[in-house]
Design brief:
With about 375 residues, the protein is an alpha/beta fold. About 35% of the residues lie in helices and about 15% in strands. The strands form 3 sheets. The protein has a 7-stranded mixed β-sheet, sandwiched between helices. A 4-stranded antiparallel β-sheet has the order 10-12-14-13. Strands 7-6-11 form a 3-stranded antiparallel β-sheet, with no helix packed on it. Strand 6 and strand 7 form a beta hairpin. The chain is globular. Bound molecules: pyridoxal-5'-phosphate (PLP). Pyridoxal-5'-phosphate binds next to helix 3 and helix 4.
């Protein structure tokens, strides 16, 4: 029996050729292809600036650094997210404050954030979980007039849209991931998009050891002697030109990836919505998610536990995955273990992610549907 993976990147000869061309050019570190990828990415999400980095984790970290968040500051985050969302708050010495999520979307909302805002809140990391756009307008209205930054964790959301605009359009600060578990991939890789030119210039320095002139720019000056300065303590968070070459090709394929994923999800919804004990992630009418993750939640009417369901699916060669993790339940954040986050706990314990990938065949989709339906009818 052939195994159906939960996700598979959509890579082909075009990406292989683009990577090979970067290698043949002799310039493999951050260089012209990174610049080209940044320009195209900024345009595709409707941002004034894009700064490529090594991952979304490093993008989030630099986002907090450039905004001046540090010790004594509180940063509101969802516990229900990949752990990097919380870890970056620790990187800058600030204090993570967990807010619960809306159980229908797995996203923070102004209503879940409001109760945890204090005088020390300096930022909110708003995750577009699984590619489902969070209500940015609502959260903006909550913090209007206050010195609270909204840093969007758009790791999963490349290609998602809200109110007919791409996620990221006009964002103060958004961080993106190009890990293969997302849609557009460069192996590892990330991006910061933003509006402020001064912050963009500082981010370019911070990703490259705090240097006032990039290695690529120095190289482009030929024989002229340029002595770089190190203006502040920076990092090595650069993307390579080999990664950017792949990213440029992937970005052109992104609209097709989103369309295909939405077709698959539509079939899942038609077949699974209405099954007793199972609900699917809710997409409001003004949204067009990329469905980086399509999750379903089980309740007490479902005949099997979530883990039993995962095991039965695995036995049938279907690689579903547990739902999104909850950072506050992990040993690294044990001090928050009894935080009152009911929707987060319900989702992390009772949801699971079904396989969705570009190359999925009609037979594979049908097999997933048939198997899930049959599990719902057991017991
Ligand atoms: C994947 C993911 C990250 C981390 O992205 P990397 O590029 O692997 O560092 C951060 N936040 C969320 C919500 C993610 O899904």
């Amino acid at each position: 029996m052939e195994t159906i993976p939960v996700m598979k990147p959509w890579l082909g000869d075009e990406e292989a050729e683009a990577a090979a061309a970067a290698v043949r050019s002799g310039w493999v570190a951050q260089g012209p292809r990174v610049g080209h990828f940044e320009t195209e990415f900024a345009e595709s999400v409707g941002a004034s600036h894009a700064v490529a980095v090594s991952s979304c984790t490093t993008a989030l970290h630099l986002g907090l650094v450039v905004a001046g968040i540090g010790p004594g500051d509180e940063v509101v985050v969802p516990s229900l997210s990949f752990v990097a969302t919380t870890n970056v708050v620790r990187y800058v010495g600030a204090t993570p404050v967990f807010a619960d999520v809306d159980v229908r979307t797995a996203n923070l909302t102004q209503d879940t954030i409001a109760p945890v805002i204090t005088d020390r809140t300096r930022a909110i990391i708003l995750v577009h979980q699984g590619g489902m756009p969070a209500d940015l307008a609502g959260v903006r209205s909550l913090v209007a007039g206050r010195d609270i930054l909204i840093l969007e964790d758009a790791a999963c959301a490349a290609g998602s849209r809200a109110d007919n605009h791409p996620v990221g359009s006009g964002s103060d600060l958004a961080a993106w991931s190009f890990h293969p578990r997302k849609l557009l991939t460069t192996g590892e890789g990330g991006m910061v998009t933003l509006e402020r030119a001064d912050w963009a210039a500082r981010l370019r320095r911070l990703r490259e050891h705090g240097m006032d002139v990039s290695a690529a720019d120095r190289h482009a000056q030929g024989n002229k002697v340029i002595l770089e300065k190190y203006l502040e303590v920076g990092f090595n968070y650069r993307m390579t030109d080999v990664q950017a070459a792949i990213g440029i090709v992937q970005l052109r394929k992104l609209p097709q990836m989103v369309d295909r994923r939405r077709e698959i999800v539509q079939q899942y919804r038609e077949a699974l919505d209405g099954l007793a004990g199972l609900t699917t992630v809710v997409e409001a009418d003004n949204l067009r998610a990329n469905y980086q993750s399509f999750w379903v939640k089980l309740d007490e009417r479902w005949p099997l536990s979530r883990n039993e369901t995962l095991e039965r699916l695995a036995a049938q060669g279907i690689q579903a995955r547990r739902g999104i993790m909850a950072a506050h339940l992990e040993p690294a954040y044990a001090e928050f273990g009894d935080a009152d986050l009911p929707a987060t706990v319900d989702l992390t314990n009772n949801s699971l992610i079904l396989p969705v990938f570009h190359q999925m065949t009609a037979d594979q989709i049908e097999r997933v549907i048939r198997t899930v339906r049959s599990l719902g009818a057991t017991g």
